[in-house]
Amino acid sequence: MTPPIRLASLGIAALLIAGLTACTGEPEDAAPLPTTPVVQLGGPGEPNRTLSPDEAAALTSPSYSEDDVLFVRDMLHHHSQAIEMTGFVVDRSDDEDVRLLAERMDISQTDEMAVLEKWLQDRGEPVRDPDASHAHSADSMPGLLTDAEMAQLEAAEGEEFDILFLTFMIKHHQGAIQMVQELYAADGGQEPEIDTFARHVEADQGIEITRMQRMLAEREG
Question: Which residues cross the membrane (predicted)?
Answer without folding.
Answer: none
